[in-house]
Amino acid sequence: MEVAMKKVIVVGMGFGGVRVVNGLSGKGLDVTVLDRRNFHLFQPLLYQVATAMIDQDSVAYSIRAILRKRKDVRFLMSSVQSIDLTNKRVLTIDGPLDYDYLVLAAGSVTNFFGLDSVQQHAFDLKQLNDAVSLRNHILSVYERAAKETDTKVREALMTFVVVGGGPTGVEFAGSLSELTHHVLTKDFPELHTEKSRIIMLEAMDRLLAPFPPELQQYTLHKLQKMGVEVRLNTAVVGATPDSVQLKDGSEIASHTLFWAAGVKAAPLADALPVEKTRGGRVPVEAELSLKDHPEVFVIGDMAYREQDGVALPGVAQVAMQGGDYVAKAIIARERGQQIAPFRYFNKGSMAVIGRHSAVANTLGGLKLKGFLAWLAWLGLHLFYLIGFRNRVVTLLNWAYEYFRYNRQVRLITSEPPLQEGPPVQENAPPDEAETAEKLRLVG
Amino acid sequence: MEVAMKKVIVVGMGFGGVRVVNGLSGKGLDVTVLDRRNFHLFQPLLYQVATAMIDQDSVAYSIRAILRKRKDVRFLMSSVQSIDLTNKRVLTIDGPLDYDYLVLAAGSVTNFFGLDSVQQHAFDLKQLNDAVSLRNHILSVYERAAKETDTKVREALMTFVVVGGGPTGVEFAGSLSELTHHVLTKDFPELHTEKSRIIMLEAMDRLLAPFPPELQQYTLHKLQKMGVEVRLNTAVVGATPDSVQLKDGSEIASHTLFWAAGVKAAPLADALPVEKTRGGRVPVEAELSLKDHPEVFVIGDMAYREQDGVALPGVAQVAMQGGDYVAKAIIARERGQQIAPFRYFNKGSMAVIGRHSAVANTLGGLKLKGFLAWLAWLGLHLFYLIGFRNRVVTLLNWAYEYFRYNRQVRLITSEPPLQEGPPVQENAPPDEAETAEKLRLVG
Lengths: 443, 443
Known about the structure:
homodimer
């Protein structure tokens, strides 16, 4: 009689989930992958989608394409509703699934720290559609500014507030600065685009907190040189559609608030009946598993684990190494073998600031900045982008932008509905003289 | 004293509008371009976006990028509410604009011929987001089919109905057939994808009505060989989310109805206080202008004009030649010169059916079919795609698909919202035994 294969469920196909599946496939296990989306997302480049540099399809890759050669892995596009640890069962919106091993790798969502008005009005960058919405918005406020005669409103439309001086905030601010100064200036000759402002707000006293002071300083000066107004020790407490409220009681008139001030574990963590730690993360043991349930693993941004007294950071490297480790741990258990506790090996971190400018803090303490760091960033990101075609298309976009100071993808894809039937004015007709002045176009 | 420049307003930056602006720029006129979108759309390739062959950004090109070198042309992203022919004034949602010459080139929308249930449930392909929605839907019904155990429902999810045997219907059906047979078959090993059906319904007794019978026959046989069930003399009268009702009283179980059975003039035509003709089109005189208002031109799909007793077709060539002509007509008038009436020169038409297979009816009566016609199609479309980068990226996608029988862009980008907070079940919990059976995954 055939022995039933052990069932492994992997929830989430981000950087961690992909590694788990790669490690488990072909090992005599029955692997089911769950994801709400049908694609893997290369999150570190979302800011480039938001700033019209690369197209959205360059950062997304079909999960079924990734799994195509893995005949022992099944994909289910679904969402998890709850997890029954006792009966080893996951309840999805499509019904229950039993498991012998469960790997949770659903990543993180933006943390607005309970600031409801900010959550309501701010843009963030966690999902593909976030990036497209932000791109549409940035281009739309420029189109609105081009039609606006009230100087104050026009300047508020051209003012962008970036909250959070971590890698995402720095990379977005740098890329946005280049978009406005090199591209939109030429696209909107009717606007005084030098009035465009990018204001970066950071609650701490420095940018890129985990980087060495030398690279923090370089980043600050480079951003300032690119026209970004950096305000350290500045906290945001609220927002409206056209303003950002600061803790000191002052206000910035702006129609665009980009929030990159923190993340918390994906809501999937709430489906686990265990106590969470800071940011809703799930504390895990030495094997990245739950305390009383060694068959349940949590990796990446969802997990909380300290190493040498410091919490592991929420970066792709931790998720990827965690994924590799969990696959090995499951295989070892099946063979009745022991495996050493998980140890994160920090290969270094980097952030790109602009054209030929980046900072990199590599393993062994080597610090790079400027052009060399930027080249390293370029090579690494091309290497990690899944799929030949994505690499080529993305490289082509980068080259196009680099040599022509251009942005190809500056499309507003949130199309207004077509008016059907005879035009109806919902409000009273505008005062023609007033709107004529407003448009500066009637002769 | 300086003489005020004559004001020209061009509404719509499709194939016609772009040509008008190209012809008028640099001629001492004050040109304002209005469009609801900020991009020019290469509509003939929308079906390839819908079938995951090329990315959406390959068929759209920033209007401000097109206009960048034309300092005498202004762009206004806006919509027209009404037109005051007497006072030569256009009322936009952003206020009124005066003109000396007005060119209306807003194209067409899908004609559902008053079939409300069809309009509600069918997909069409006129706007960029239509193509993305259709792509998301095609991939989503497959994902749903992969989770469905009811054979009838599963087969209905994998059945696609294409209404209209014109070029759009033929090209979409051919491309969809290749997507399902070469790509989705491999992506969904758990599905019997041979059960997937594509049914083409055409109310007339032949496909590609304006083509010579020889090419119509070739197209019919080629589609049938590709697995498309073609039903001629078949009309649709209604639809629900999971069925299509035919005139003979029968019904097809299908979750996807694609409608390419006709177009009508864009709603902008309703803003013109003149009598319309078939399909809401605006009758124009020999100079493509309104009868009593020679300063108002209508071109492309919005206009109705007969030549040698036959109505000009709603194709890109007519719009482009009309645009060139109107620019010349306006310049001639300004110089007090006469211009000969507009004459459309038919350079030929083509439709691609599948890999190395197309039909082309060229000027001089030369008929091409098969590989040679396909090569001609490839060259022409690359030539007409605006912008170097779009050409390269599109070619790359085509080459990738051609050599690897693959589709890169098979992403479902309509993401479900993240559940926030503890999971809440809106309905009663599903019967576990039933859903377990439904999923075929619980052991």
